[in-house]
Q: What sequence folds into this?
């Protein structure tokens, strides 16, 4: 089975307001509410691509109920831990000329709750895939990813990590199957901005020396580079299209990679579908559907 982890999933409330003014009553002219969170996004795109998976993490309160209901409506399987207090966060995205975001903090996660989550990790079996994405809420131990990786057999369970540069680096010693830094996260790890192809590949190889097996560097509109465990390098520009909104492109890429890779256990198939999925999401509002991803993948 594939498991995604989102410690602090959200309801994302997007609203558009013309001539927004602070300190005044403003009325929206467009609004929508979607389930949000990096692991949750991976689950939604995987499901749309027809790949069974289970979303894990914490939910609380009526917003948590809605996150679960919303996921189920999209056909996703979930196994969230329900926290006794607080409520899952609402992230407000205000779109006017500029986009302003206000992210809630979410419910506090106690050490007992973390313990319960660790019990879930004991369900993992050889051959499973575990996707660790996003940040760790401040109420949780910041070494939560390491704690998880300590108790699972990372030779048997393929771990995919997509998180900020410092958290990512701390997982490398556990030999994750795949890491997906974007160019700026990769640059942060090496203390410089990366532009040249050889430099990017060199940094990816360096992370392999630190333990990562496969390194997928995403570069927004410039596409991506994959450096595999056996030393191969694949690179491709993004498929052509018109940018609408790239939020969730990285998560879509992770989902696309998994779906493509699992078809024939092929890294290059994973790379191609990951690239198609990232761009398919960038070329529309919200996450791309399986059909949209397949349409772009078949074009290549
Ligand atoms: N502007 C764009 N045009 C075309 N394709 C894009 C664009 N932005 C992202 N993509 C596609 O999505 C993939 C992942 O995007 P990106 O490198 O922006 O990930 P990210 O920074 O991790 O995104 P996220 O904000 O979801 O964390 C890219 O490799 C590319 O295939
Ligand atoms: Mg990202």
A:
């Amino acid at each position: 089975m594939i498991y995604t982890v989102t410690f602090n999933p959200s309801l994302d409330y997007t609203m558009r307001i013309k001539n927004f003014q602070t300190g005044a009553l403003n009325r929206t002219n467009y609004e929508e509410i979607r389930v949000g969170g990096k692991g949750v996004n991976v689950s939604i795109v995987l499901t749309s691509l027809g790949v069974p998976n289970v979303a894990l993490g914490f939910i609380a309160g009526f917003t948590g109920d809605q996150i679960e209901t919303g996921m189920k409506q999209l056909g996703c399987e979930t196994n969230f831990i329900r926290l006794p207090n607080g409520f899952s966060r609402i992230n407000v995205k205000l779109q006017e000329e500029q986009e302003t975001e206000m992210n809630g903090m979410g419910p506090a996660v106690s050490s007992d709750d973390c313990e319960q989550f660790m019990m879930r990790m004991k369900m993992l079996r050889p051959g499973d895939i575990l996707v660790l994405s996003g940040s760790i809420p401040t109420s949780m131990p910041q070494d939560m990813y390491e704690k998880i990786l300590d108790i699972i057999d990372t030779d048997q369970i393929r771990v995919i990590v997509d998180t900020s540069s410092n958290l990512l680096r701390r997982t490398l010693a556990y030999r994750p199957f795949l890491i997906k830094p974007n160019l700026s996260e990769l640059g942060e790890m090496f203390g410089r901005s990366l532009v040249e192809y050889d430099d990017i590949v060199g940094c990816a190889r360096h992370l392999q020396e630190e333990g990562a097996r496969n390194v997928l560097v995403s570069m927004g509109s410039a596409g991506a580079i994959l450096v595999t465990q056996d030393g191969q390098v694949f690179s491709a520009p993004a498929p052509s299209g018109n940018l609408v909104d790239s939020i969730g492109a990285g998560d879509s890429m992770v989902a696309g990679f998994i779906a493509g890779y699992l078809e024939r256990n092929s890294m290059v198939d994973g790379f191609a579908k990951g690239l198609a999925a990232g761009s398919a999401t960038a070329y529309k509002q919200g996450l791309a559907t399986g059909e949209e991803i397949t349409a772009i993948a078949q074009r290549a």
The chain has a mean pLDDT of 97.
